[in-house]
Amino acid sequence: MSGRSEHQKSVPLSVLLKRELANEKIEKPDMVVVYGHASENKKGEDFILLKTECQRVVADGVSTYSVFGLFDGHNGSAAAIYAKENLLNNVLCAIPPDLNRDEWVAALPRALVAGFVKTDKDFQQKARTSGTTVTFVIIEGWVITVASVGDSRCVLEPSEGGSHDLSADHRLETNEEERVRISSSGGEVGRLNTGGGAEVGPLRCWPGGLCLSRSIGDMDVGEFIVPVPYVKQVKLSTAGGRLIICSDGVWDALTAEMVLDCCRGMSAEAAAPHIVKESLQAKGLRDDTTCIVVDILPQEKPPTSVPTLKRPVKGMLKAIFRKKSSQSPYIEKEYVEPDIVQELYEEGSAMLSERLETKYPLCNMFKLFVCAVCQIEIKPGEGISVHEGTDKPGKLRPWDGPFLCLSCQEKKEAMEGKRTSDRLSSGSD
Ligand SMILES: [Zn+2]
């Protein structure tokens, strides 16, 4: 066996056969994704990833998905560039092969955690610099999955109206839970002391002085600054909606409501530069200011003529969409659509033992002797259960996975404040 890269590099016959069959059956999604983006740079540390029409072989055809990422580096751009180039692949490698669409979507939250941690760990072995925030969005059908560390945000406005936060705010100033976590892992939370006892600026954690509690690639701070993302997964109704992903340059100037309001009725392409312009008008160019607007729309309307989302009239809009859908000549079969945004998954814990466990019935699909984070092959008996050292008294059996390799186990302990003195340096994979 050649290890972790096997299913990435050589294509098994079964997959080739499937691909042949699949050429006949590329699933026509009933939705379309259109996007726009804009950026005004002050430091040049914001980076974006825009990928639509990614193809994936599934059990009975080819399915497409889209990926959008925003990486806002602090004190340099190395980590942001590294994450932009490697994160998606690390996430995809953590998804078992041969899953059908529903299973693939269900596997995403766990794969995102593994991919974020692997990206952080790999980067730390290459460079000793500052890190990056990440807001990472995967859209498959009507399901949106967002994983985030740091303080860039992603807001959803479904066509039915209202708004949903799909990302976490990992600023120490506003996140008490994270302050408690850091204090109990041995970090210190406080403001900058100017010397005379006067404290200035936002809450930061020491050592390092970062005002965020989570990021990818931070090497000059404590290990309790973890890359474990908050993950939220929702399913839109077939009426669709608009996603707005911005760096803190926008959110420092405008509220979510202001951002959604200022571009309502515009195409995604026009909306993104408009949001950036609005935030510059409000606060001036004080930071990198980046915005991605993504519209997820029903397929029956050609994307160019879609006026996007109008101001929602409570109750009315839903009725309009219903009526249109059932009368549309392009839709052959009746379908039942959910009324509102369905919440499929939400988890923000920093503990790998909670995040690599899965609430979905997927246990058997993950290979037993592969590290759940870096996907390296582990010899039988050498894997360390992700539950090792947690409070599962008496219940832990030697075969209770998921398992980590020694190097990832060290990383896990460091993140939990159990290895305070020695920094990750082994590089054993
Ligand atoms: Zn590992």
UniProtKB/TrEMBL annotation:
Its cofactor is Mg(2+); Mn(2+). Its EC number is 3.1.3.16. InterPro entries: PP2C (IPR015655), PPM-type-like_dom_sf (IPR036457), PPM-type_phosphatase-like_dom (IPR001932). It holds the Pfam family PP2C. GO terms for molecular function: metal ion binding; protein serine/threonine phosphatase activity. It comes from the Eukaryota. It catalyses: O-phospho-L-threonyl-[protein] + H2O = L-threonyl-[protein] + phosphate; O-phospho-L-seryl-[protein] + H2O = L-seryl-[protein] + phosphate. Keywords: Hydrolase, Magnesium, Manganese, Metal-binding, Protein phosphatase. Residues 34-296 form the PPM-type phosphatase domain. Signal peptide: none annotated. Belongs to the PP2C family. This is protein-serine/threonine phosphatase. It comes from Cicer arietinum (Chickpea). The gene is LOC101491462.
